[in-house]
Amino acid sequence: MTVGHGGKISGRLLHITNESLAPDVLEFLEQAGAISATLTISNDVKSATPLKANDGICSPGIKTFGAGFIVDKTLAKRWISDFSPHELAVLKPYFGGKDVTDRWKGKFVIDVDHLEEEQLRQKFPHFYNHLFNHVKPDRDENNDDSRRLNWWKFGRRNTELREALDGCARFIVTTETAKHRFFIFLTPPQFPEGGLVVVAIADAFALGVLSSKSHLIWMQRAKGALETRPRYNKQRCFDPFPFPADVPEPLKDKIRTEAEALDALRKRVLESHEDLTLTKLYNVLEALREGRALTDAERDMHDRGLVTLMRQHHDAIDALVAEAYGWPADLSDEEILTRLVALNKERAAEEARGLIRWLRPEYQAPDYKAPVTQTLDLGEIAAALPDNVIPWPGSLPEQVSAVQSILTAAATPLAPQDVARAFKGKRAATVRPVLDALAGIGMARRLKDGRYAA
């Protein structure tokens, strides 16, 4: 039965989970939210709120606003041969979007943004001469006072990104627009241009999460578009995205290992075969996933590009990241989105209470101390059952019954993570849908602070 209501409101979608006692008793799983024309919950990723945990480490690359800053391969090669290491410190390999999706074009950029004019003239006279002749004439015609007067500096300094990259041994980039979405490591002094989105994290765990199916699905729903190419919008795709938290170190290490292997494999292939690009490799990978027969040219790229190995690394990352979230590996795209949107709301509520799960705490908040949480008295059940000893039931009715018994036995309301502690190997994201189902059928109450009571 379907009942409609005028206007834009949150609806209730009930799925029958047990009709063995019908027509007297029916058991339902309830979901709340906007219901689409296909009678599914519409996961509105765009309504997700930015998380403080992600602050200050993701930014578009650095825009030069002046072609004269860019040095072609021929001139750069001559300078590298003629100049001292001290002088070459401000000449950096230049990476734009095409340098990532295709191949590095061998261009360099003169980055003297940290110097005043007299310092530049004294310490780097060759580069001063080049910029004076190739940048200053255009800047003299610029209506922006800052750009005209500071003609040797980039048009947009991107101070926040520079601070985040300072001391970062390597960093993650993806192209702002591309047919395929992939993330790679770059290493200083490699210079990320404005066509890239930069994540200032050196940990391969973050590379694995960003490369996973969970993040890709989130990005596809949250993205903007430029022409027909998906656009990675920092505000929509990264800032609200909830990374897995409280992940055991052995599992983190597995994700790191796969992400490192994927990054190294792709770079080794491109170094060995000058005609291959990441776009070409991911075209072939897409064909494999679709089950389409490869053409002779694609088969050649597949074999030389080790695309099956790439696929194996991606598949392993997808499964491991799902495990890091505490989710089954075979969730549908909509189920993944449902859980990510719910997790975003949970993290936002945590942050409102002062608990922030910083992605790079040593840089973002070196003096941060997590608030002390009150230990909940779970009554007799807590005394009888230490953390994570109850096996998680296999069927939904059994899960509902088990979670309800935990709530009923508790002396005070419980947060999802408190309930999850009673079950072996489970996290809040696993039990939350069951708690919501109990609340939907009136067997539990969800409180304003996100806790649940019988």
Description:
The protein is of the alpha+beta class and 454 residues long. The protein contains 21 helices and 14 strands. The protein has helices at residues 73-82, 85-88, 97-101, 117-123, 125-134, 136-139, 145-149, 159-165, 204-211, 213-222, 234-238, 249-272, 278-290, 296-305, 307-325, 333-352, 361-364, 379-384, 396-409, 416-420, 428-440; strands at 11-18, 27-33, 58-60, 70-71, 91-95, 108-110, 171-175, 184-186, 191-192, 196-199, 224-226, 229-231, 445-446, 452-453. Helix 4 crosses helix 5 (125-134), helix 9 packs across helix 12 and helix 19 (396-409) packs across helix 21 (428-440). It is elongated. The two termini are 29 Å apart.
Q: What are the SSEs and their pairings?
A:
Layout: E1 11-18, E2 27-33, E3 58-60, E4 70-71, H1 73-82, H2 85-88, E5 91-95, H3 97-101, E6 108-110, H4 117-123, H5 125-134, H6 136-139, H7 145-149, H8 159-165, E7 171-175, E8 184-186, E9 191-192, E10 196-199, H9 204-211, H10 213-222, E11 224-226, E12 229-231, H11 234-238, H12 249-272, H13 278-290, H14 296-305, H15 307-325, H16 333-352, H17 361-364, H18 379-384, H19 396-409, H20 416-420, H21 428-440, E13 445-446, E14 452-453
Parallel strand pairs: 5-9
Antiparallel strand pairs: 1-2, 3-10, 4-6, 5-6, 7-8, 7-10, 11-12, 13-14
Helix pairs in contact: 4-5, 9-12, 12-15, 13-14, 13-15, 19-21
